[in-house]
Each structure stands twice: as C-alpha cells, then as structure tokens.
Amino acid sequence: MPKITREDVRVPADVMPEARETYIDNYMAATRGTGRLMLFACDQKIEHLNKDFHGAGIDPSDGDPEHLFEIGSQGTIGVLAGQRGLVARYAPDYPEINYLIKMNSKTNLVKTAQQDPYSPQLYDLEAVLAMREAGVNIVGLGYTIYLGSEYEANMMYEAGELIAEAHAEGLLVVLWIYPRGTAVVDEKDADLIAGAAGVALCLGADFVKVNPPHGTDEKSSAELLAVASRAAGRTGLVCAGGSKADAKDFLSSLYDQIHVGGACGNATGRNIHMRSLDEAVRLTNAISAITLGDYDPEEALDVFEGKENFNI
C-alpha cells in the first residue's frame, strides 16, 4: 500500500506560510495518506441533469440525492465532489466526508453545434470559505475547462485566479479539463489529452481529471495515457470513470491507468452512484483497493464481490 508522510507533500509556492499546514492536512486527507486521489464525482445533477439518476439500468435509490452522501459516508473515498448548494444541504448530516466544491457547472442542453461550451464560475471563493468556517469539511475545489472552446480563455483565467486564491487558503484544486468545441475533432485524441494535462500544470492545479485517450493499433489507452501523465509533471493526473460499466472491466482498466499510464488515482461518479447502496459501497471499496491499496484487479474484484475486505 503506498504511503506518504507530511514531509513528502510538495507544497506549492503560492500557498501562504500561514496556510502551509492546512494545505498538508487537506492533501493528506484527500489522498488518505497515499498521495493518490479517489474522487467520487457527484456533479452530474447539473452536468447531465436527471438522466443519470433515473431510468433503465439505474437503481431507484439513485433518484434520491442523499444516496450520494450515503455512499460517500459508508464507502471508501478520498473526496466527494459536488456543487456548493448540494454539499450545503447534506453536509451537516455527513460531517465525516471530505468535500471538494465544484465551482462551475453547465447543463448539457446547449450542444456544441449551437454554441461552443462555456462553464462560468457559479459563486465566489468567499461563499465556500464561509461554509468551511461554519464547520463543513471542505478540503478542495474543482473547476471545469473546455480546452478548444472559443471561451477557453475565460475559463482558464477564472481557473488560474481560483487556484491562486485557493492555495493561499490552503485548499487543493482539481481541474476537469476536456477538449471540446467546434475546433476539436477528436475529444479523446492522445495528444490533446496530454495537452490538457500540461495546461493544468501551468495553471497550478494539484490534480487534473481527464478522459482516457483512445487506444490505437500500436498502443493501448493506458500506454498513451503515460504521455499525459508525464506532461502533467507535478500535477497528479486522474481519469474520468464514465458511465456505468461492468465492474471487472472497469477495475482492470483502472489498474492499467495507474500502473501502465502513470495516473495518480481516479475520478468516478456515475459508475458508482447508479448502483444500489450496497453495490455502490462495495465498488468504492474495490476502486480504492486499487487506487489506494495497490490491489491487483482480481483482488479488487474479490472486494467488490464481498469475498475480501478493504480498509485503509
């Protein structure tokens, strides 16, 4: 099992001296003392609206937003990422969860054919700091950039300012960066994914969430992901989990992303919360067994199937 100490945490130079210990606290909490991130992404109620929470193949429990927090509380995660209002409504009943506040979001109603994507910031940092002051266990922020959109400069500016302000307060920042817009031919092109990782590094992000690139005849997706991981430098790279998938296949891909592709964890939402509470909790444990515990896919599958326990 990978383990780091407080002395191993690389504190960015834009973290103010008085916030240094807070930053280290938050980094250790978010990564569960491993340096790897298991991010439970719960921002889809704006991003994808209700279709990710109701319908064929989705457990009925997913229709209740509290399902997300029950999973986060009972399962093994690093952080639960969601919008400020969502967290504000449920955090008082789930104070033990590490929260990452998603600072911008947009719906999927306006398609790229109509307008290039733009996801402006929804609230300022002061509103989030007030929640932290009130006792909500907020360890970081998240922000989405659509690289290649004609509005990318606006989003990069907001993200850059946000990262500087967040670091000054000892908070981590995870950037979601997706190449998307009329200028983008292939959103999962390996070079573009690596480019997104480099942008996150230059903006100062602690972690960047990207889609895994398409594999080719010559190289697998994980092998191409290794290029993006190198491009990210000291910004940890994690892959989006996508929609609900077979657990065995998903766990195998996650293992390869980390051990072949050099990823520093995962960012999974729909593949977890579309399941019943019991199954979702078991899947978080299995994902964390690989991400945080260095289990191999077969061992992690045993965790998912309830044949083995995973604790950290």
Give structural notes.
- It is a single chain.
- The chain is an alpha/beta fold.
- It has one domain: Aldolase class I (TIM Barrel), CATH 3.20.20.
- It is 39% helix and 14% strand.
- Strands 1-2-3-4-5-6-7-8 form an eight-stranded parallel barrel, surrounded by eight helices.
- Strand 3 (99-102), helix 5 and strand 4 (138-147) form a beta-alpha-beta unit.
Main features:
8 strands; globular; 8-stranded parallel barrel; TIM Barrel; 39% helix; 14% strand; alpha/beta; 312 residues; 12 helices
CATH fold assignment? TIM Barrel
- Order of strands in the sheet with most strands: 1-2-3-4-5-6-7-8
CATH architecture assignment name: Alpha-Beta Barrel
CATH class group: Alpha Beta
Number of strands: 8
Number of helices: 12
What is the assigned CATH homologous superfamily?
Aldolase class I
**Overall spatial form:** globular
SSE pattern, N- to C-terminal: HEHHEHEHEHEHEHEHEHHH
Count of folded domains: 1
Which range does the strand content fall in? 5-15%
The helix-and-strand class reads: alpha/beta
Radius of gyration: 18 Å
Topology of helices and strands:
Elements: H1 20-30, E1 37-41, H2 44-47, H3 66-74, E2 79-83, H4 84-90, E3 99-102, H5 125-133, E4 138-147, H6 152-168, E5 172-179, H7 190-203, E6 207-210, H8 221-232, E7 236-240, H9 247-259, E8 265-268, H10 270-273, H11 277-291, H12 297-304
Parallel strand pairs: 1-2, 1-8, 2-3, 3-4, 4-5, 5-6, 6-7, 7-8
Helix pairs in contact: 3-11, 7-8, 8-9, 9-11, 9-12, 11-12
